[in-house]
Amino acid sequence: MPSDELTEKSSAGASPVRYAGATKRYPGSAKAAVEDLTLEVPAGEICVLVGPSGCGKTTAMRMVNRMVEISEGDILIGDRSVRDRSPAQLRREIGYVIQQVGLFPHRTIAENIVAVPQLLGWKKERAAARGAELLSLIGLDPDLADRYPAQRSGGQQQRVGVARALAAAPLVMLMDEPFGAIDPISRERLQNEFLRLQAEIGKTVLFVTHDIDEAIKMGDRIAIMREGGKVAQYATPAEVLMDPADEFVEDFVGADRALKRLALMRVSDIDLWKAPLAQVGQATAEVRTELDGAEVPYPLLVDGDRRPLGWLSERDLAGEQVPAKPDSPLGPLLDRDDIMRDALADLLQGEAQYAAVVDHEGRIDGVLSVEIISEFLKSPKAKTEEHSAVERPRSAERASETAGDDERERAKREAL
Question: Within a 10 A sphere around the Cβ of 392, how many other Cβ atoms?
Fold first, then answer.
């Protein structure tokens, strides 16, 4: 189990980052690489800097640990300016993960993880304990501690890079396109793993990417930057998708922004309609009475435990009692935890007007339709973020978890 030091999410375990008119001008350049950047990243949140090549997003991130020196303005971590510490000291206090991982090839995995604690003068026993703890946290077998980076897959090396960035319990983590050089399947798996890790450690993270889909998935807040190092919009993913600040942001986010918005939600996040419920043998007159003013104009046949069986038609209601076999099939059956985008796909693929939604016990919870989804996307609620990055649904998560288990088992066999 992670220690309290790793899992603490209070302000003592993370600090806000504030850009106060931060500007970077390189000698000989007519334009600033980053100009008057002013924004605040709350403690414990993930801020994604995203934009086209040359927009200054990586420069903005590297000013935090002074890999790039600030020309004007300031950056504060907590209430303290980054200028108050030497670059070397600052970099030991800030976690840093890069696309190429940057592990020391001549050091073992365990030695790579504890490199910063050793620089800070930690005792050998304390550093070793920290390394073992982090190996467990990132899901690598302890037997791999004495292996070298070249003996591990790219995905495993990336996880070691994250562990190394966490080793000295930094208040802030910088991640520069950390998953950019990995195949799509491993990339999604690592994204999911990092979000699960962030749910435990609650660090303040600045994350750079050029991929708007990754930004939407990983960010609590997104800073969309345009050429010239200026922020076009700084907002939650929901706000960026449903209320883009200008034409540049709208084009950058893409024409499918409504579908991307649905990918951030579960079916349970929307107000479902209620259908009249009927049971076998019930008087059809009672069912017809319930149809008056109902949100769904068709009765849903359920069993004694309120589990959906099918939809009743006019022919079903022509007799005196509800028949045992409904005239219309049940069609798509959705779960409350289904991703809304996937639920819409099920509705369209099934050519269904309505779909029953059930709870974890399979009992009817409500009814979803394309009309409900359309009404939601037109409403002010569509701009409101229901979930933080770590709480949002993650597509193919179950498959990713299974693949991760397979990878760990394979690594364990290789180590024997």
Answer: 20
Q: Across the beta sheet with 72-77, what order do the strands follow?
A: 34-41, 17-24, 72-77, 80-81
Residue 188 is predicted with a pLDDT of 87
What's the CA gap between 156 and 361, in Å, rounded?
37
- The model's pLDDT over 230-247, given as tens digits with 9 standing for 90+, comes to 999 999 999 999 999 999
Distances (CA, A) of 380 to 53, 217, 384: 33, 21, 7
List domains and CATH numbers for the chain: 4-264 (3.40.50.300), 268-378 (3.10.580.10)
pLDDT for 100: 62
**In the predicted model, what is the mean pLDDT of the chain?**
86
Above pLDDT 90, what percent of the chain?
60
Q: Which long-range contacts (CB under 8 A, 24 or more apart) does 161-164 make?
A: 161/97, 161/98, 161/101, 161/102, 161/103, 162/97, 162/138, 162/194, 162/197, 163/113, 163/131, 163/134, 163/135, 163/137, 163/138, 164/103, 164/112, 164/113, 164/115, 164/116
> Tokens 């076999």 identify what position?
325
